[in-house]
Amino acid sequence: MIGILTDTTASIPQEMIQKLNIEIVPYYINRELESLRDMIDVKPDKFAIWLKETTKLPTTSNPAPGDYLTGLRHLAGQMREIVALTMTSKGSGAYQSCLAGVSIFKEQFPDVQVEVVDTLQVAMSQGWAVIEAARAAHSDLSFDQVVQRAHEVSRKGMMIQTADTLRYLHMGGRIGKAQHLLGSLLKIKPLISMQDGIITPLDTARSRIKAYRRMIDLIQQQVGKGARIKVAFTHVAAREQAENLQGMVADRFECVESIVTPLSPVLAVHSGPGTVGLSFFPA
User: Fold this and answer.
1) Is the CB of residue 146 less than 8 Å from the CB of residue 137?
2) Which segments of the chain belong to CATH 3.30.1180.10?
3) Whether pLDDT at 115 is above 80
4) I want to staple 88 with a disulfide (CB 3.0 to 4.6 A). Which of 4, 21, 151, 197 is the partner?
5) For the CA atoms of the chain, what is the radius of gyration?
6) Using an 8 Å Cβ cutoff, are 7 and 94 in contact?
7) What is the Cα–Cα distance from 213 to 204, expressed in whole angstroms?
8) What number of other Cβ atoms are within 10 A of residue 197's Cβ?
9) In the chain, which residue ranges form alpha helices assigned H by DSSP?
10) Do 274 and 237 touch, CB atoms closer than 8 A?
């Protein structure tokens, strides 16, 4: 069996993590004197309530090499081959940190093969690559085939997200090429994506419903009318809105698999309450 490891930014539903035996390494949220482990010490719903009220945004930090080393050691007790997938190396130090952890791990476990995949994605676009790699591993595919599946889904996936404001993304220093949208009029809903591992603006809309319709148009541009897709809908304290978008997408595409899941708190820091997004790839 091949072990699969990733970090909390993948925002994979807990039941899928357990079912597929995915090893999760936490990011950190640094709030005043507290250092909170993402999805362990802090969970999405309660954190979103706090985030709405705070006047001082916490900082975030990627896992240290030792955090990855702990996860790798846990898998090494059961597996002789491991695939580790990180969020984009262009938006976080996780990839380099994971490589450092793997370097130490190989000195201790020279007989365990490890491959690190930089997904160049985030949220459930990263999550889908992890899930599909784990499913490939459970299907007894070879190590090379599992790695290939991880790269394939990472390459084909796309994330589209809209928020009530870009304030959180800007304050957290993760705004990328969407900087110019900060000056947009109030009530403008920006649509952002990730291209080549960097946050990139796609468009703007004047209401949520128009933003959702534009998302659907963008999906169609990528995969074609009525295409078969696997899609996840992510949100920060906006499940009802995410489910509304889910219904709209289901009307236009053949959704082979459809998931609604909250963004992990460490991503909520940068996107803010009210955020709704989707991550899809052709099935």
Assistant:
1) yes
2) 158-282
3) yes
4) 197
5) 18
6) yes
7) 11
8) 20
9) 14-20, 44-53, 65-76, 94-108, 123-138, 143-156, 167-171, 208-223, 239-252, 265-271
10) yes
Average pLDDT, stretch 110-122?
Answer: 98
The mean pLDDT of the chain is: 92
280/156 Cα distance (integer angstroms)? 8
pLDDT at position 188 over 90: no
DSSP state of 111: T
Q: Which CATH class is domain 158-282?
A: alpha beta
> What interhelical angle do 208-223 and 239-252 show, nearest 10?
40
Count the neighbouring beta carbons within 10 Å of the beta carbon of residue 217.
Answer: 11
Write down the number of H helices and E strands in the chain. 10, 13
Q: For residues 17 and 21, give the distance between their C-alpha atoms in angstroms, rounded to a whole number.
A: 6
Comparison of pLDDT for 73 and 55, the residue scoring more: 73
Task: Compute φ and ψ for 123, nearest 5 degrees.
Answer: 55, -145
What share of residues in the chain are helix, strand, coil (percent, to 5)? Answer: 45, 30, 25
2-27+62-155 — its CATH code?
A: 3.40.50.10440
Give the model's pLDDT for residue 169: 55
Percent over 90 (pLDDT), the chain: 83
Average pLDDT on 69-89 reads 97
Location of each CATH 3.40.50.10440 domain in the chain: 2-27+62-155
Query: What is the mean predicted confidence (pLDDT) over 216-239?
Result: 97
